[in-house]
Amino acid sequence: MCARRVLRAGPGVDTMKGPVTRRRKPERDLFSDPMPERIEPCLALLKVRAPVGQEWAFEVKWDGYRLAVHIVGKRVRIITRGGHDWTPRFPTIGHDALSLGVDSAILDGEAVVLDKRGASDFGALQKALGGRGGKRFASEAIFYAFDLLYLNGHDLRPMPLSERRGMLEDLLLAEPHGSIRLSEEIDADGAPFLKLACEMKLEGIIAKRRDAPYRSGRGGDWLKIKCSQSESFVIVGYEPSTIALGGIGRLLLAARQGDHLVYVGGVGTGFTFESGAALRKAMDKLIIPRPALDMTGRKRSYRWLTPALVAEIQFRGWTDDGKLRHASYKGLREEADEATVYEMPTG
């Protein structure tokens, strides 16, 4: 199947044109359901290849912060994946959510900042938020909604994705809502869509079972297929530098293996002067006299850290001895985002 639809990632992204298929809003005779205070998100399972079959729907993989937007009357709450209230940090999204004209709703999606090509840029979002624990606001952030979990007194999670998506389209496509946009389903087979996404230097794609209800956790109803590997690692130390951006020559990274941390190599690229300086300031508050894991033979010039900072690292693969290849720093994950530290296989 040829790709026939627009990737609505923003200005400059113009691929896969074709009509948007509108679905009729299903009529439901339901009693009013209590609105959940919080819903644990459905998480995508990492796969190497895109699945095949008409039962799968495909979307762009956004590179930002997973959020749930709760609307009740004139009140909006924006909740992170970890359950933290970030409403004040996304004022524009909160404001625009009230224009949806619903009595109550829960939208599941991703907050992103777009680059000049119209692709999501995690580093730009971090900058807009002022970095880890920053007090600035992401007024330029866009919320790409990809699921509707609750609407006007009804819990939609038991419904199949195809019906929830139809109701979400009806809600968002009738008129523009500023910073709240639909993360559109792409009318394409998975393999060519992934190839195109990678050629456009996007993060990758997401595949979702059309007939699946919304189930919290990483159960396999949603899959993620990435163009390049990007995972979260703990920073366990760094090498100071008098010439590198931000004073950081190299970060030392660790992954989890069972109940302990293992060293997986370092990263010395991807910093700007601003991001490097902010990271150096955060790390210098965590210096400890000895490494938190076995680092025998490492330089004495390294400064060791309490393993509290989690960095998102892009890399091309692994060496034979379990170290990252061609790694690049993308930014720190927020505690509220509950980023999962990469788990190394045992044995």
Written description of the protein model:
- With about 350 residues, this protein is α+β, with helices and mostly antiparallel strands.
- The chain has five helices and 19 strands.
- The strands form four sheets. Strands 11, 12, 13, 14, 15, 16 and 19 form a seven-stranded antiparallel β-sheet that branches. Strands 3, 4, 5, 6, 7 and 8 form a six-stranded mixed β-sheet that branches.
- It is globular and about 65 Å long.
- About 40% of the residues are buried.
- Mean pLDDT is about 85; it is low at about 1-30.
Summarize this, please?
14% of the residues lie in helices and 31% in strands. With 347 residues, the protein is an alpha+beta fold. Strands 11, 12, 13, 14, 15, 16 and 19 form a seven-stranded antiparallel sheet that branches. Strands 3, 4, 5, 6, 7 and 8 form a six-stranded mixed sheet that branches.
Annotation keywords:
single chain, 347 residues, alpha+beta, D-amino Acid Aminotransferase, Chain A, domain 1, OB fold (Dihydrolipoamide Acetyltransferase, E2P), seven-stranded antiparallel beta sheet, six-stranded mixed beta sheet, 5 helices, globular, disordered N terminus
